[in-house]
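I am writing to request your help with a piece of structural work I have in hand. I am sending you one protein, given as its amino acid sequence and as whole-number tokens for its backbone shapes. Kindly check, if you would, that the fold set down in the tokens agrees with what the sequence suggests. You will find the record immediately after this paragraph:
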Amino acid sequence: MNRKLLFGAAAGMLLVVFVLAALLFQKYHSASPELASASGVWQRDGAPVKGPPDAKVTIVEFFDPACGTCREFYPLVAKLIEQYPGKVRVMMRYAPLHPGSDKVVAMLEAARLQGKYWEALERLFAGQNRWVVNHTSQPEKALALMEVLNLDAKRLAADMNSPSVVQVVQQDVRDGQTLNVRATPEFFVNGRPLPRFGFDQLSLLVQEAVAKAY
């Protein structure tokens, strides 16, 4: 086979792959808004929320504390809340996709029971390179980072394995699977997923939701 034929065959294969990827993307993102709003699984009662409780616009973020992009988006989402005073809040939900992250999110939930959720989350993000090695979470190192928070270590260990905390994590994982959350962070704004990943897309979706709600 000469070079022209090889080039043509390769170009044809790339075109097929591109078309299939585009069709899959369109199928997923056309079905998700109905799925998210109809099923109601995008929110969970009792999930950690930052922002006014009566805000009419809710950003739901499925995240993994071991995810570098989640760390980068954390201050950006906080700025969005500040941009619309009293109108926007964020609800955090767990999607522990990295190996070992299931124990770290249980640790976060246990810290929350001691009133230190946000401090623990920010501590984990700030020191992420110390407890995430080769995309694998190391819970013991994550736990060591939390020592400065003066948590009750004995209670934390017990709560991490308590049925209520395990149930919270499992529900978030199940709901994430229902919503086809395959990477983090994944955002839903009043039940609508991002049409395409990016902060500009998130900002626009929030802007549209605020305009509609207020």
